[in-house]
Amino acid sequence: MKQFGITPKILQFEQCQEFCEHFQIGKGDLVFISDRTNEDYFKDKIGDDAICINYRKYVKGEPTDVMVEKIYADIKDFSYNRVFGIGGGTILDVAKLFALKNIVPVVDLFNKEFEIIKEKELILIPTTCGTGSEVTNISILELTAIHSKFGLAVDELYADYAVLVPELLNNLPMSVFATSSIDALIHAIESYTSPKANAFTQLYSLKAMEIILAGYQKIAQNGNEARQPLLKDFMIASTFAGIAFGNAGCAAVHAMSYPLGAVYHVPHGEANYVMFTEVYKTYQAINPDGAIKKLNGFLADILGCDANDVYNQIENLLNHIITKKALHEYGVTESDLVDFTEAVMTKQARLMANNYVPLSREQVLAIYKKLF
């Protein structure tokens, strides 16, 4: 029985110049990269013969099946052997699909209605400190037909190389830092309490939590600019969390955030934060023993509080990074809560299977109502 694995080879370069010298990007390469990242960091470093895709040309918000099919239509007649994804979670998740032999129709791909074959080399380079996608075998898209995010998790989506280049975080806005790093923190926490967790995954979960929370404490004390010398640490913590959840999985926090992100276009990490503490308070009420007891003790030591007050204190800390909002502040209606619950219970079984304790339809709806 497989317990743990790190499939991509992890490389680290301090500067983009070193990365480009190593990989020599040019003819035969498909590169997913935003125009801004290209201009800021890769000007004159990527060969003119490379096929560069600015995904913002195709979508303004989260990635969708429609967006992927439009990109495919534009590049299907080009020949390429390597796929580079340079960006946040959106870019990395989309780039993964283009390493496959068969991509469209995307809904059929995500429903595994045809054979999934990887035929291109895949190199993923994150430009935020939260996705962890560079080391996972998961691609998340909004499937427009069901108005919800949906994940494809198959080993063919693993990168050949996950490349960390801290220079790419130099211009990261505070808002993106906040939402991406909170996402990484929740990756670490959810994977720690997953039934699939083990001693190996929990080692990475704990270290990611430690780095991120220690960084948040410095930011809370010294202001937003205190994040700058910590960005490399946050990037590494994000990859640690990616390794953990890539093996043990995420759960209800992510599952419940997906309808909010898909319908109201709330940034992924922010949507996760909205759900996070109420889900864990519910877990605690149902079964205060087991992995959550160990988690709470670990968090209490970092936060300097009583274990029973962990989730209030962690919320106080995270509010220095991004302010938590009620669901109605995003435009969510009471009727949406029923629809969100239905989407979670029928479309997110892959994630809900990783819950610390099982949650019923009634319990999920009750969480949404408390957050409303």
UniProtKB/TrEMBL annotation:
Record protein name field: NAD-dependent 4-hydroxybutyrate dehydrogenase
One Gene Ontology term of the molecular function aspect: 4-hydroxybutyrate dehydrogenase activity
EC number of this enzyme: 1.1.1.61
The organism's place on the tree of life at top rank: Bacteria
Keyword line: Oxidoreductase
Pfam families (alphabetical): ADH_Fe_C (PF25137), Fe-ADH (PF00465)
Organism, scientific name: Acetobacterium woodii (strain ATCC 29683 / DSM 1030 / JCM 2381 / KCTC 1655 / WB1)
InterPro entries on file: ADH_Fe/GldA, ADH_Fe_C, Alcohol_dehydrogenase_Fe
Keyword Oxidoreductase carried by entry: yes
Domain Alcohol dehydrogenase iron-type/glycerol dehydrogenase GldA: 40-165
Assigned protein family: Belongs to the iron-containing alcohol dehydrogenase family.
UniProt domain Fe-containing alcohol dehydrogenase-like C-terminal: residue ranges: 178-371
